[in-house]
Structures are given as C-alpha cells and as structure tokens.
C-alpha cells in the first residue's frame, strides 16, 4: 500500500501491517489530509484478507499532538455547516478504525493529546512507553473533546472522563494504564518487543473468529441488542457453522495444527 502523504503502511509476510502517522515535524498532528488518509487506509486494511493484525504507530518523538494548528484555523474560519462537516470527517475516520475487523494495536512511543487520545481509544490494545504523557486539552481552548468523546468515555469510563475532560490536566503512562486508556506500559527500549508479543499472539487465532469476537464485545458493551443472551447464542452458532469453526474443531479433535497458524513464521 502506498500513495499517502501523511502516513506510511508496511506489511510483513505474516500479515502484520503497520500503519504509521508520518508528520514528525508537526508532532503527527492531524490535518484534513491525514484524517482523509486514515479513513482510506482503514477501509483498505479492512478489505485486505492478507492482513491479520494492524499496528497503529507514529514516527518521531510524539505519537499525536491532536489537531494541526492550520486545520484548527481552517475550522475556525468556517460557518457552522462547515465546522460540522469537518467534525463529521474526523468522526467517520475514528469510526472506521474502531470498526476495523482486524485487531488494532496502538504503539505509543511518545506524548498524545486531544485527538491522539481518540486514536488510542479506538485501538483494541495500547502499549505505551513509560515516558509518554497525555492530556485532553480542549477546554483550555474553549472547546470540548466531543468528536473523540464516545470512544474515550467508553475506554476510560464516566468517572475518569469527568475529571480529565473538564480540567485538561496532564497524566502519565501509569495513570493511563490505571484508567484503562493504556493496556501495558514499558520502557522505550522494551516497546518493540512488548508490541510484538501482543501482535504475534493473534497469529494463533482464526482471523474470522477474531473479527467476530471483536464485534461481539462491541455489541454487548454498547448494548446494541435488545436481547444479549439470544444475540450471543446466535453468534456462537454462526461460528460453529463457519468454515473456520468446522476446520478448527476438526483439527483439535484430530490433534492437528490449526490451519491458520502457517503464517506465524518470522519474515
């Protein structure tokens, strides 16, 4: 995959793709182009059957500083409809990443503010360096973290959101782990290995089952169904009747390797 100006995408032979924010000179702040390219990349990764896992990373010392200053100037100069249009583009990009039917692992090597925390919140797993700091800084500007709000509140809960949305204070990686924004914290030197451990675990799992498990969690957690018991029973029956389910159970009963583990070898 290529052709992006604000991102890079690489993929190894095992199906591990790395989607990298690539505006280090701007601290990977999001502008209109990056938002559009992230949405496009999410769609391409979602439809690529060779991709098993996606790592969301960033180049340079900062993970994501939030909104780009010029993008914010442009938003400020628009009328109400224009402001709504810009917010909608950001919201749809975050939704595309949140809905990605592949595991999304955040590799956070540095600070993240505002929209950067939104990106972290749509990841399934986030591994952060100990030195990283975070803040939802919108209220300092007279704004609110609204577009990223649904994802951040789901991630950290109402109590923590009330505190951090309102006072815009900085917090460290250990605090981020304690509130659920971050899954694991390690030193900078250990970051690559820690992310690799999270990523390679998925290669033992059936890709379709992983996608279905992710959808199951989202629907149950968000109360998207009126009858969660019936819903969960139906989804399990779907998996039993799927090609993967049949192949996996057959391999298990015959004590054979699972058919989807063949790509686990190192590149």
CATH architecture of the largest domain: Alpha-Beta Complex
Structural category is alpha/beta
Reading the helices and strands in chain order gives EEHEHHEEHEEHEHEHHHH
Strand fraction equals 5-15%
**Largest sheet strand order:** 1-2-3-4-6-9
**Global mean pLDDT:** 94
CATH superfamily of the largest domain: 2-enoyl-CoA Hydratase, Chain A, domain 1
Query: What is the CATH class designation of the largest domain?
Result: Alpha Beta
Based on CA atoms alone, the radius of gyration comes out at 19 Å
How many strands, which pairing sense, and closed or not: the largest β-sheet? Answer: 6 strands, mixed
Query: How helix-rich are the residues, as a percent range?
Result: 40-55%
Unreliable sequence segments? 263-267
Under CATH, the topology of the largest domain is which? 2-enoyl-CoA Hydratase, Chain A, domain 1
Distance between the termini: 18 Å
Total number of β-strand segments?
9
How would you describe this structure to a colleague?
The protein is of the alpha/beta class and 267 residues long. Helix content is 48%, strand content 14%. It is built from ten helices and nine strands. The chain has helices spanning 32-47, 69-77, 80-98, 115-121, 149-167, 173-178, 191-201, 207-221, 228-241, 243-253, and strands at 7-11, 16-21, 53-58, 104-108, 112-113, 125-129, 133-135, 171-172, 184-186. α1 (32-47) packs parallel to α3, α4 crosses α5 (149-167) and α8 (207-221) packs antiparallel against α9. The model is unreliable at 263-267 (pLDDT under 50).
